[in-house]
Structures
1.
Amino acid sequence: MGRICFDTIEGYAQYARSVVEAESQPPVSPRRVTFFGVENADDRATRASARHLVEPLADALACNPRFAAWSVDRVIGAGATRDALGALLGSGDPPALLFTASHGLGFPNGDPQQIAAQGALLCQDWPGRKAWRGKPIPEEFYLAGHHLSADTSLLGTIAFLFACYGAGTPQQDEFARQAFKARADIAPRAFVAALPQAMLNRPKGGALAVIGHVERAWGHSFLLEGSAESGQARPQIAVFESALRSLMSGMPVGAAMEYFHARTGDLSSALAALVEAREFGEAVDEIALADLWTANNDARGYAILGDPAVRLGGA
């Protein structure tokens, strides 16, 4: 299932025109996939995503003979700045497939910036938690929807944004139990993130689709036990790799995301079995149960923004 949500009728019209144009006039330029991975200083989360998700994915696709005609570009670590991402999106020659991994900004419920900037991509410019010491994060450190110019064209591009709130925000906290809290509102209403909205409805050509995460995105998506820094986690990028390979092979984005749907089903079944065993008095590892619960809620958060029938032209 895909979702589209724009603030104006013109936004829907612009997106529809972009899809028709991309289908009618598929690009003839060489196929290019770009990986943009932030690795902020003193930051466990982006260190894990850069080293255990972005780099292995880029390696796997670069050495796959099936995609020898594709170029695999990497912007990881020091070069993954806001200016670099802005230039990548505003170059007039965007990649056919873009994969980013970074923090997504989060704001308190009711904050005046929440609707406009929740899920905006925090880039390498942020110096890390210790150096920044909890100060407000300036716009110069992140890319939000309102930073894309009217001249930006992303025609024919499919983007995958791995970031907290990258696709949207629910009204209520879906991980309250993980923090031993009562479920509470984290936003005045559920809403689609502004950055993918802006990427999809560019006047001069919008992206075909943006894949992202609703709510916070966790390391459980690509590490079996949460964090590679514990020494116990095992990278699990097969779902990501299979989805990207499918997109590069010309499959519709909805079909490519079936790998994520299947993983959600597997986790839900495993969680239900473990909960049932616990209810019948069997000894259950509570940490393993908490990890599985978090992984299940995380897995169900992936969403397609755009028409699920779109596919990369010329793939």
2.
Amino acid sequence: MRVIATICARGGSKGVPGKNIRQLAGLPLIAHSIRQALECNIFAAVAVSSDSEEVLSVASTHGATHVVTRPHELASDSAAKIPAIRHCVMQVEETLGICDVVIDLDATSPLRNIADIQQAYDLLMNTGCPNVITGCRSRRSPYFNMVEIDGDGNLALAKQPGQDVHRRQDAPRTFDMNASIYVWRRDALFGSDSVISPATRLHEMPESRSLDIDTELDFELVEYLLLRQAT
């Protein structure tokens, strides 16, 4: 079974400029995901894809086995992530050969741990599902305390429960996708542009490991949590 890790990290960022190579708890942000992949011991390759030569240089310094220059059309603000992952996979396969499983680690989600990666992979292998995503329990429930407003300004629950729900704990379980880990069988990755199919499975992570960095406040919170983990 040939498994490769992809880490996609654009050079630009509006919320936190240069965040992917900015120092976080003593390491460039992207280095946390690279080190987790290397320590996981399931990957034949750890590949970083970026439109930035500076990001790729930092990635090489911190152990990435492959660095892939991403075409500009796959690195714009509006570009979808799956095409960038596919491009990265195909570039790695030119030297490594066809892979069986692709695990994408989001560079902005360094709070995951090695067990999360391994367990998400095991879920794929043990269930025969096409892909696995990660998420945490929702803080708000569409069945209980999440509402929509219609064109007339009227409120209604976002999702109507089959019976009255008087406590959030009694509502059906819902999850926030945390975008930390995506696991695909290769044919599933290349066969659909959606990350969710009827057979997709979810590996649950705690909220404490589900934060991702999109703002300066996120950066400070994640750094605090990482430093607390290290003590």
